[in-house]
Amino acid sequence: MRMTFLLLLATALLAGCDDPDAPAKPADKPASTDKIDAAQTGTAPETLVRIVHTLNKTDEQCDADGCPKVDLQWLTFENQPALNDAITQQLATMLIQDEGNATHDGTIEGLADAFLQDASDMAMASEQGWELNATVKKQGRRGDLVTLSMETYEYTGGAHGLPSVQYFHWDLAKQQSIKPGDLLVPGQQSAFWEKAREQHTAWLDEENLDQAFRDSWPFDKTDNVFFSDKGMVLQYNVYHIAPYAMGQPTLTIPYAELEGIVRGQYLPQQ
After folding, report:
1. Which of 134, 139, 188, 236 could form a disulfide with 261 if both were Cys (CB 3.0 to 4.6 A apart)?
2. pTM of the prediction?
């Protein structure tokens, strides 16, 4: 089966706070020596050089309305090979969660091909408008910690598609991924989840949800967290603590309540 394939590479220089809207950096201009040395010596670089990858594929043989398509966009960074490998592996893991019957090699490109192959095997796929989308963006940075948001959406017919979001944390100095539990002061996990439960109760009250809802959709823990300007946000995907119609709920624990619970380097500096 012949398929169209477009792989674009673009780069943009992120200024001190890694602003995704910063002016673009010429693709043929090498990174400065100090940035290369910073990555090689295990210290966090002051700035990161983004590389934006875009993968758009469809079945060229399909000429009907709603042809199956794949639209993916993700980031890697110059002179950050370990981080780049982790990003692509994490994104591939998200794409593979609902894999079909087609064989693949586990790469992002291979999973895109497998999705289209599954669509081509379904007689009604062109009319149903199968699609697979993904976007990886920088959520924020706090010192050595950079956080990426990874959003995917898959539709294979039916009433609605399935959106999903994950937040990925990476320590630039240690060159390793950081789990949500690593953001907390040792021994403070119980205190953290108690704060989360309080925010969950406040959310239920704000939404005026009755006891039947509370019994059907109880509080649950999540590994999906990120830092906002107001506090630590707990992100839930559809069907986790609420029905699909309520989307992807978030609970925010204010920074004032996280003193002594979240490690100091991740809290706003006074």
Report:
1. 188
2. 0.81
